[in-house]
């Protein structure tokens, strides 16, 4: 048995994240489709210029992480922050993997299980409302720990890397795609922008890609490889992709939405312009990380 590291939990944050995704589930699915994550484009591509389909771009992000992390077909995977199951069903379908997905949102887990049944993949993809840092799985239970755009919500990232290391079999792979912040000091305006993004997206803080790499190595991983995908995913916040600014609901409709779902839902509509500014200025970055649990 590997020694367990007790994570620094934040029940209040977990509750806020759960509520945010419960109240925005239908909004994300209506606007972003199967995947609650960024898309991936080649240099020079733009959804406004070439009409790149949102689903194709988000599907591609999954394929790019599969390739970057060299995820083997038929793997047993823990999907940390599974959302409504888009990436997991892609892993369970074409790759033939067996996926256990966890999310703090009960509504997301229920919707993901619905989608798995509809796709005929419920024998290979199951979804649960669980804290990723306390799933109860035994040591060495998985070939791959997959975390696509979920680390930003975790208040104790060292605990995540330690738990991923514990859950992986020797030779197993950690595959991460994450929002990040530019390494180094930020000026006052940049710090203010980051604070707004964190507030509206219910996140405790950001780490840089360099910090993620350091955390993986400190947890005992080897063969750590980080790729900066900022330029490839930045178009995700173009209005032609995100579509958030295209919703002309008006002030009265916004008030009704806040009254019925709570004011937290308004963060969904503020996110687009803030994230676009973050990518345009280079303050917000995005990257992929692959790390391997060494064999004895």
- What is the number of helices? 12
Structural class: alpha/beta
In the CATH scheme, the class would be Alpha Beta
Widest sheet: strand ordering: 3-2-1-4-5-7-6
**End-to-end span in angstroms?**
14 Å
Largest sheet: 7 strands, mixed
Q: Cα-atom Rg, whole angstroms?
A: 18 Å
Mean pLDDT: 85
Number of domains: 1
Secondary-structure element order, N to C: HHHEHEHEEHEHHEHHHHE
Region (SAM motif I): 77-86
Protein name: Methyltransferase domain-containing protein
Family: Belongs to the class I-like SAM-binding methyltransferase superfamily. gTMT family.
Organism: Kitasatospora saccharophila
How would you explain this protein's 3D organization?
With 296 residues, the protein is α/β, with parallel strands linked by helices. It has one domain (11-292): 3-Layer(aba) Sandwich (Rossmann fold). The chain has helices at residues 11-32, 47-50, 54-69, 86-92, 106-118, 157-167, 188-201, 209-218, 230-233, 239-242, 250-261, 266-281; strands spanning 76-80, 98-103, 125-129, 142-148, 168-181, 222-228, 284-292. The radius of gyration is 18 Å and the shape is globular. Residues 140-148 are annotated as: SAM motif II. It holds the Pfam family Methyltransf_11.
Quick structural gist:
This protein has helices at 11-32, 47-50, 54-69, 86-92, 106-118, 157-167, 188-201, 209-218, 230-233, 239-242, 250-261, 266-281, and strands spanning 76-80, 98-103, 125-129, 142-148, 168-181, 222-228, 284-292. It is 45% helix and 18% strand.
